[in-house]
Design goal:
Layout: H1 8-12, E1 21-22, E2 36-45, E3 48-56, E4 74-80, E5 87-95, E6 102-104, E7 110-114, E8 117-126, E9 131-138, E10 146-147, E11 161-164, E12 170-174, E13 185-186, E14 189-190, E15 207-210, E16 223-224, E17 227-228, E18 245-252, E19 255-261, E20 268-273, E21 280-287, E22 297-302, E23 305-312, E24 323-331, E25 337-339
Parallel strand pairs: 17-21
Antiparallel strand pairs: 1-5, 2-3, 3-4, 4-5, 6-8, 7-8, 8-9, 9-10, 11-12, 12-15, 13-14, 15-16, 18-19, 19-20, 20-21, 22-23, 23-24, 24-25
Beta-L-arabinofuranose is lined by residues 38-39, 54, 70, 107-108, 158-159, 176, 245-246, 294, 296.
């Protein structure tokens, strides 16, 4: 952790670059500067907001349809005591070189807690170029994390997100189409073949499975999550509102909210259900398109207020060099969610 030797409160007063706190008023700017961060997953534990992010870098890998230029190699944790900042960047907490089965592209992560153990869930490509989901553990929310020797069996693709429900059950959601390879998974099997539904057929949905009590494996086969329109009809593959990537589920006032990116339409949207498995009913746009091709987000409640964590590329002008930001999130009386980015 940065600020080593000093208490967290002392470290929070330190202004500086990578590995120290920033004095940015984060509701108006990036959470941290001097390092590119993306794909934020926010969790409040013991009154502190921990934001788990991927770490964008310019490594010279050429842009392609597989997203190879999103060539990230490690994860970071950013800590906030207050949504207005300052933010403390704890630096790299897990590097691809320390994951026995992973080779590249450490994309959007999430974290979970069980007792005094903290879990980092992450996607990465293995030696065969297949996106798999890994898990790493730590005794601290700020790492460092130690990876399990093998990825989680029975599930793949990208963008893991874990919902810990009120009864303690934990659900793992994953998925991203195109470069995220969701279209190449048939149940628990990676086929290597792009199989997209026809434009007028039900869209590909993220996958969900309950995790075992130790959060290291699936407790059941993964199933597909369906998102429907207001009439209960599945959104079709040709519908710009359909799921693209970045699933995130929060339970707000007893309702399960599935947040996801629509990809080509460049919006963050949400859908609601009375079950963590869905089906989810499409509700609307949470975040209008940001600068940059990708849009990704998560939801956290700090000091009684709801926030959206998201990223954009407005500072760099390059899709693959992003900054994580935070915006107030309004929960409307009818259950709709809308973010108010600055
Ligand atoms: O950051 C790499 C990938 O881009 C993520 O996994 C996607 O959700 C998108 O943000």
């Amino acid at each position: 952790m940065s600020g080593a030797g000093a208490g967290v409160e002392d470290a929070l007063r330190v202004a500086g670059a990578d590995g120290t706190a920033t004095e940015t008023v984060v509701l108006d700017g990036p959470l941290v500067e001097g390092v590119w961060t993306a794909d934020p997953s926010g969790h409040v534990w013991d009154g502190v907001l921990y934001v788990y992010t991927s770490h964008d870098e310019e490594t010279g890998v050429a842009r392609d349809d597989d997203g190879s230029h999103y060539d990230m190699r490690d994860y970071r944790v950013i800590e906030l005591r207050d949504a207005g900042g300052p933010a403390l960047d704890h630096g790299a907490v897990l590097h691809v070189d320390d994951v026995p089965w992973a080779e590249r592209q450490m994309w959007a992560p999430d974290a979970a807690r069980r007792g005094d153990t903290f879990y980092l869930f992450f996607p990465a490509k293995d030696l065969d170029g297949v996106f798999r989901i890994g898990v790493a553990t730590s005794c601290s929310p700020t790492g460092p994390f130690t990876a399990e020797p093998e990825p989680i069996a029975g599930i793949g693709s990208i963008d893991p997100a874990v919902l810990t429900d009120d009864d303690g059950s934990a659900y793992l959601y994953v998925g991203g189409i195109m470069g995220g390879q969701l279209q190449r998974w048939d149940g628990a099997t990676y086929t290597g073949v792009d199989a997209y539904p026809a434009p007028d057929a039900p869209a590909l949905g993220p996958r969900v499975a309950r995790l075992t009590d130790d959060l290291l494996a699936l407790a059941e086969p993964a199933r597909e999550v369906v998102v429907t329109d207001a009439d209960g009809q599945p959104l079709t593959q040709g519908d710009p509102r359909r799921f693209f990537e970045g699933p995130w589920v929060s339970r707000i006032d007893g309702v399960y909210h599935l947040l996801y990116s629509t990809g080509g339409a460049h919006t963050l949207v949400h859908a609601t259900s009375d079950s963590p498995y869905g089906p989810f009913t499409f509700r609307g746009t949470v975040l209008e398109p940001v600068v940059g091709w990708t849009t990704q987000g998560s939801i956290a409640q700090l000091d009684g207020r709801w926030y959206l964590l998201y990223h954009d590329a407005r500072a760099s002008g390059h899709d693959h060099l992003r900054n994580v930001r935070i915006a107030p999130l309004t929960v409307h009386a009818d259950g709709r969610l809308t973010a108010d980015p600055r």
